[in-house]
Amino acid sequence: MIISGNFFYRGRIIDCAVEIEDGLIVDISKNKRGKRLKGIVMPAGIDVHVHFRDFKESYKETIETGSLSALYGGVCLVVDQPNTNPPITDEKVYFERMRKAERSTYIDYSLNLGLIEENSEKIKNIIEKIEEKYYIPAIGEVFLKNAMMVSYETLERVRKSTSKIITVHAEDPKEEDDVLAEVKAVERCLKIGNFHFCHISTSKALNMIYESNSTSEVTPHHILHSREKIDFRVNPPLKSNEERIMLFKNFQKADILASDHAPHTIEEKKEGKPGFPGVEVVYPIFFYMAKKGEISLNELVKKFSKNPAKIFNLSRYGEIEVGKYANFVVFDPSDERRIRSDDLHSKVGWTIYEGFMAIFPREVYIRGEKVLEDGDVLVDKGFGEVL
Ligand code: DOR
Q1: Is 290 helix (H, G, I), strand (E, B) or coil?
Q2: Is position 260 annotated as part of the catalytic site?
């Protein structure tokens, strides 16, 4: 199969033809011709930080509804987080969850392994058992605070015992001030070794990570919302508008953009549960921002496709390139519209981006197969592969 169009290729948009065999790109050329796509063809998104819930929290999201929401947002692969109920802290629950994902995911799916004090001595052994069958992108997100809390000492011991990537939720448990909590936790972790730092919300911490061999992730909500505007809870908390602007000014220094899609029902939000859904709107909002010149398209692709694949060793993903999966999204740049929660697909039915301008993908291709077109999903659940 050959597809022609304006493809985002090696940092710029070129008019070319992409030849696909068995889901993989086998040739990119200016001399061939195939069915022509309208619009701009971008590498599909990779969201390395989602909480798809399921299990005992199916009332607020499932792998099925979460992955459907991701698909509408132009995401071809997610990394799900292990703080489910029950949590993913041994091979038994990991296998159970992957079997569930096999039956229910619309897009490609992978899952991190949780670290808690209780499994920390056995973590290498658990990884070995799981990796006979599945690929674990990372250990984490490791919480330094909350119910799954791990001490710095345990984190250090585990860091020294495995070469696996460890993703850290960097909030110091003893520090009350939320800016200092992040800065202190990052400072302490950088002394221990290399980590991937989830949802960094302060420019100071971002700069410290930038100067190190560790990697960082930022979220749309810490870039687009400040605590003056919205009082919904999230961890790490939304910062002041001044801090938000500083973070955005340093956006270029972040390695990854990820949603931290963390759905809760409206009732739970009233009780103070932290987190927001977001996997469906990252690419649409940021593609719109790229169109308006607020960020570059190249930065967006790096942070939402290329770097996630590179950092988490997802070797067939992340670029439109020979040898990679034919995972594309097609945007029509003139198709601007406002986000309405009624149009989104997460089970919770609300968004903190109501009214934001966005450009949603018109078509999505996964491994060469058209999976979404003009708002219609063309495959069944279970189409996605688990890693
Ligand atoms: O606000 C958050 N909610 N931060 C996290 O790290 C976890 C997430 C959740 O699972 O709800």
Answers
A1: helix
A2: yes
